[in-house]
Write a structure and sequence with these properties.
The protein is α/β, with parallel strands linked by helices and 256 residues long. Helices cover 41% and strands 14% of the residues. Strands 1-2-3-4-5-6-7-8 form an eight-stranded parallel barrel, surrounded by five helices. The radius of gyration is 17 Å and the shape is globular. The protein binds phosphoenolpyruvate (PEP).
């Protein structure tokens, strides 16, 4: 069994539809200058597509990695407005799939998330696969079923090695951008269910190795209690990641 300590924490910033190339580069420069514990935690910045080149150039000589917020699964062709994984060469080493805003606002389905995850892995990038229940689903006692179904549909299509190399973000929909974070107990319980599901689908080695973040209103005020919990391998951070000092505090809290 891999001990939880053996999984390297990962903190990713999802800037959503904020920042262009210039202010994105400025924010990336500010993050890289925060004196972060890069030896103990992976740090990823996910700017909007138009900022990828500027941010990638800014952090090139630093340990900060860059991720895309969205990709399409086909490699090229008549898909106006879309960006493929091969088009991210030299720009990004991570890509998010299944963010709840993509699911809710743009109709992304579990099957889409599976296709995107396979394409991200095939292109040599690391997927950050976001899953999570809505408030209605939680109130109806369906959280475990929702997470099991979302995780199974993506990870049954992968190999155990691809699963180990992936990152999962547990992001309860009701906690994203609301200022209402899950309690450490809720996050730890749900992440435990996700890891159990990965074990059912891909075996215990993959389940021990896959990194599972918590995301949903993580801030400098709540990051210590969330990220000190066993099994929570870092965070996916939206709003607070637009402030370099706030994001740095979260990265430090994730470092073992
Ligand atoms: C997110 O966008 O993935 C997120 C968790 O946002 P916030 O931290 O603002 O809730």
């Amino acid at each position: 069994m891999t001990s939880p300590q053996a999984r390297r924490p990962i903190v990713a910033a999802n800037w959503k539809m904020n920042t262009g190339p210039d202010d994105g580069a400025k924010l990336a420069r500010a993050v890289a200058a925060q004196g972060l514990p890069f030896a103990r935690v992976d740090v990823v910045l996910c700017p909007p597509a138009t900022g990828l080149a500027a941010v990638a150039a800014t952090v090139r000589s630093t340990p900060v990695a860059v991720g895309a917020q969205h990709v399409y699964w086909e490699a090229s062709g008549a898909y106006t407005g879309e960006i493929s994984v091969p088009m991210l060469a030299g720009l990004a080493t991570y890509a998010i799939a299944g963010h709840s805003e993509r699911r809710q606002l743009f109709g992304e389905t579990d099957l889409d998330v599976q296709r995107k995850t396979l394409a991200i892995l095939a292109g040599g990038l690391t997927p950050i696969v976001a899953v999570g229940e809505s408030l209605d689903q939680r109130d109806a006692g369906q959280t475990l079923d929702v997470l099991r179904s979302q995780v199974t549909l993506v990870f049954e299509a992968l190999s155990p090695d691809e699963t180990s190399a992936s990152v999962i973000a547990y992001e309860p929909v009701w906690a994203i951008g609301t200022g209402r974070n899950a309690t450490p107990e809720q996050a730890q319980e749900a992440i435990g269910w996700i890891r159990d599901t990965v074990a059912e689908v891909q075996g215990s080695t993959a389940a021990d190795q896959v990194r599972i973040q918590y995301g949903g209103s993580v801030s400098p005020d709540n990051c210590d209690e969330l990220l000190s919990r066993d099994g929570i391998d870092g965070a996916l951070v939206g709003g607070a990641s637009l402030d370099a000092a706030a994001f740095a505090a979260i990265v430090r809290a994730a470092a073992p």
